[in-house]
Design a protein that fits this description.
Oligomer: single chain
Structural class: alpha+beta
Shape: elongated
Largest sheet: 5 strands, antiparallel
CATH architecture of the largest domain: Roll
Strand content: 25-35%
Radius of gyration: 23 Å
Strand order of the largest sheet: 1-2-3-4-5
Number of domains: 2
Order of helices and strands: EEHHEEEEEEH
Helix content: 25-40%
CATH class of the largest domain: Mainly Beta
Number of strands: 8
Length: 158
């Protein structure tokens, strides 16, 4: 699951992050295999001036794939951190770009809710402090359900 609980004597921390299926080694393999597959057609025209023209297009295609994967890697730096202590609840959402978004509330008044059909399936929210905030939008519906069942006893949800 793309979240982890850590606990100290004074607080519990929940860190959530989006799925990150491609490892650095997998990235190297993917770019290498893509480059090899794209250069195979060059063998048919090897020795003619056409190879240089086609090579420019293949290099542009490889660069485009590499750039798209790098942009995706930047987007995956997003994460959320929920800190629960006896007298305070703090949620911080860190987007890939821009300032972090925070929410604070008194744990006595915080409740956790899940809506089967919200903006996403099994929409998970926390209510308290006069606001309702989303938690784990990047998780799968099953992961949000599991997280809901873990948070309910902690936050004493109805």
């Amino acid at each position: 699951m793309p979240y982890r609980w850590t606990e100290t004597t004074k607080q519990k921390r929940l860190k959530l992050w989006p799925h990150q299926s491609m490892t650095p080694k997998g990235f190297v393999w993917f770019i290498g295999v893509t480059a090899a597959m794209l250069t195979l057609p060059l063998l048919a025209v090897l020795g003619s001036p056409v190879v240089w023209i086609l090579m420019m297009f293949f290099l542009a295609a490889i660069w485009g794939v590499w750039r798209a994967i790098m942009a995706n890697r930047t987007a995956r730096t997003m994460h959320e951190e929920l800190i629960l202590s006896p007298d305070h609840v703090h949620l911080e959402h860190v987007p890939p770009k821009g300032a972090p978004l925070t929410w604070d509330a008194n744990p006595h008044w915080v409740s956790v809710h899940i809506t089967p059909k919200g903006p996403v399936d099994d929409y998970l929210t926390l209510r308290g402090g006069g606001r309702e905030v989303e938690l784990g939008a990047f998780l799968t519906p099953d992961e949000r359900k599991d997280l809901y069942h873990e948070l309910c006893p902690i936050l004493r949800a109805p």
